[in-house]
Amino acid sequence: MKILVCGASGFVGRHLTQALRGAGHAVTRAVRTPREPGDIAVDFRNDTSKEPWLPRVTGMDAVVNAVGVLRDSAANPMQRLQAETPAALFAACAGAGVQRIVHISALGVESGVNAPYFTTKLAAEQALNGLPSGLRRLCLRPSVIYGDDGASAKMFRNQARLPVLLLPMGGAQQLQPVHIDDICAAVVRWLGDADAAVAAWVAIGAPGPFDYARLKIPILDMYGQNDHPDVLAGAKRRAAGLVQKGSLKMMVPGADHFFDDRHAALLAHVRTWLDATLAK
Question: How many C-beta neighbours within 10 Å does residue 147 have?
Answer without folding.
Answer: 18
